[in-house]
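Please annotate the following for my students:
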Amino acid sequence: MDELLRDIKRLRAFGVDKVLLFGAPDASQKDALGASAWSDEGVVPRAAAAVKQVFPDMTVMTDVCLCAYADSGHCGVVSGGKVLNDETLPLLAKVAVAHARGGADVVAPSAMMDGQVGAIRRALDRNGFRNVEVMGYSAKYASALYGPFREAEKSSPSFGDRKTYQMDYRNLKEALAEVEADIKEGAGTVMVKPAHTYLDVIRAVRAAYPKKRLAAYHVSGEYAMLKAAARAGVFEENAAVLEVLTAIKRAGADLIITYFAKQAAGLIRGKR
């Protein structure tokens, strides 16, 4: 927690006032259901509480999923080699409520289970957290670009892949349907993930829902590609970072979730 708070302090100095927290529990805390994900003593509720105590004006967003907490590495309950959608929904709701108790302002379900936004919205309302927003990972594609994150989180699936519940990257129409479903279920913000390789999807969602707050997640593989190319001398890193993030904004994103946040904010403010 001390490292987290030092990092938040640096982010605030660069003008970043929102943070999205992910949990990376120890392997000993993982089980079949990912139960540590909804423990009040879990890493994310404790982190949210710590940030809000020291930086009450910081908007704390939390990722709601089971993949990092379940020994299967999948985003939902597994039985017979299959991920069970409906059985996962009440568990995701429990995770979201635990995060809200910790102090989260926004909970962001990333599991891509059908009905997850609605289940979480109802659970938050029942437990007195009507002011906690739900940010849906609405158009989350089954992408090859999540590798660095999964390695860091140790959350790669132990069998199969996530293509049965994440979206086919060839499909644009489904993105609009998924966004519409999340809006109807109560999402305050919708999201496209990945970002700079999916600018057409961001643009399509923006055009279809011009008044809805739209986030775009610039994922770990997109970050790593820019870093690797810059190290290889392909281009100057800072210039490329600002160009790519501007493209995401230009496509229609209101919020950009990126590992370049501190670096980009520093460049924009003339700090290094």
Q: What stands out?
A: The first strand starts at residue 18 and ends at 21. Residues 202 and 251 are 6 Å apart (CA to CA). The chain has ten helices and nine strands.
